[in-house]
Design goal:
single chain; about 5% strand; ARM-type_fold; ARM-like; HEAT repeat domain-containing protein
Length: about 270
């Protein structure tokens, strides 16, 4: 006789005594298929296998598996221990946080609507996305910009910039002088995303520093594209030889836009 923990119900883990060896790993068709079958009730996963399956999906989170990770949160999220959500829910939330921005936003909207997990238990970026889901009410996201946790403040800046919440620009500018350097960088990027040209110099400085250090500057290039001017062209030409091919293409796009804009301004206005 062997004591095994099995997730028989979609909500309640129970202990039962089962005869014989543990079931073979029920994932011949892959983690996603096994989890779909589990939720459909056609293939019950032992708790440990369930957790391993969720961990596998979360490690390679993609938009097509996001609904399964979300289902884990919705079904098991209400059951929390003294240290927060159950392990499988924590893993699923981490996977949702790794999604690209559009997929993460959709998942956050569902989390905001269903609220299976208390907001303080959410990872920083998902917590900010859930707060932003209240838009046009910007108070929840504004509050996170003043959160005691630097990681929460960073996430709030990032989400506000990506979502284009211009009403929060003044509050984000305060974070440009935050005590945490990673929050300052997130605030600079968010201000640039919102078209605030006052941070152009800060973006250029970070761009040159990242290039010298051999770090990927894609995100900085994207931000600079929102606020670049003729002086930015000098910086872009200087760092271009050190960029990876994909980043060179992005730099060239910005340079082309600057050149086109300058040419347009020099065309004399016609009078008829």
């Amino acid at each position: 006789m062997e004591d095994r923990t099995v997730q028989l119900d979609l909500f309640d883990p129970i202990h039962l005594v089962a005869e014989g060896p543990p079931a073979a790993p029920p994932r011949p068709d892959g983690a996603a298929a096994a989890l779909r079958a589990h939720f459909a009730g056609t293939r019950r996963l032992p708790l440990r296998t369930l957790q391993e399956t969720v961990r596998e999906l979360a490690a390679t989170a993609a938009p097509d598996t996001a609904p399964l990770l979300l289902a884990v949160c919705l079904h098991y999220g209400p059951w929390e221990s003294s240290v927060g959500p159950m392990p499988e829910v924590q893993t699923a939330l981490a996977g949702l946080e790794r999604l690209d921005a559009p997929a993460r936003r959709r998942a956050a909207a569902e989390l905001a609507r269903r609220r299976p997990v208390a907001e303080p238990s959410l990872p920083a970026l998902l917590r900010a996305e859930v707060a932003a889901a209240a838009t046009p009410d910007d108070r929840p996201l504004r509050a996170l910009l003043d959160d005691p946790s630097a990681h929460i403040r960073e996430a709030a800046c990032r989400v506000a910039g990506l979502r284009g919440v211009g009403r929060l620009l003044e509050a984000i500018r305060v974070r440009v002088h935050d005590r945490a350097p990673w929050v300052r960088t997130a605030a600079v990027l968010a201000c640039a995303d919102l078209g605030d040209a006052s941070v152009r110099g800060a973006v250029e400085e970070r761009l040159e520093s990242a290039t010298r250090a051999g770090n990927c500057p894609t995100r900085l290039l994207e931000a600079l594209g929102h606020v670049a001017d003729r002086e930015s062209a000098v910086v872009l030409r200087r760092i271009r030889p050190s960029l990876a091919p994909s980043d060179q293409e992005l730099a060239d796009e910005i340079l082309d836009e600057l050149a086109t804009g300058a040419a347009f301004k020099t065309v004399p206005e016609s009078h008829t």
